[in-house]
Description:
The chain is 29% helix and 25% strand. It has helices at 38-61, 101-108, 112-118, and strands at residues 4-9, 12-17, 20-24, 69-76, 83-91. The strands form 2 sheets. A 3-stranded antiparallel sheet has the order 1-2-3, with no helix packed on it. Strand 1 (4-9) and strand 2 form a beta hairpin. Helix 1 (38-61) packs across helix 2.
Amino acid sequence: MDMVIDFPGGSRVDAHFGPFTVPTDQPAFGYQPDAPTPFATFLASLGTCAGIYVLGFCRQRGISAEGIRIAQSLEANRMTGLVNKVKLDIQLPPTFPEKYKTAVIRAADQCAVKKHFEHPPQFEISASTTEAVPA
């Protein structure tokens, strides 16, 4: 999937792909952002990806997803500030069939975003000159 990243003003940095735009912003002293930070958007992709797999699991079995939530929390390395553990707690309503509890955890574990952490891609960053875009 190709994306175009642009800078619409202030601290905003937006990603455009297909018909979608994902806005991001960075808080600064005395400035409230208009959108989530890029890192918050990244973290949200982990939980929402797991959610897609949980939802698919429920739909395949005719189980209502009503009342299901995923609580996501992080543990960070105090020295580096980097995340060293992401915890996902699938909160199931009392009506969720007990026999599927382990299977729904396995479904969430198949999240494609998580799988990319297990086999991370290589990054190639370059810079090129483009024609000036008229205002």
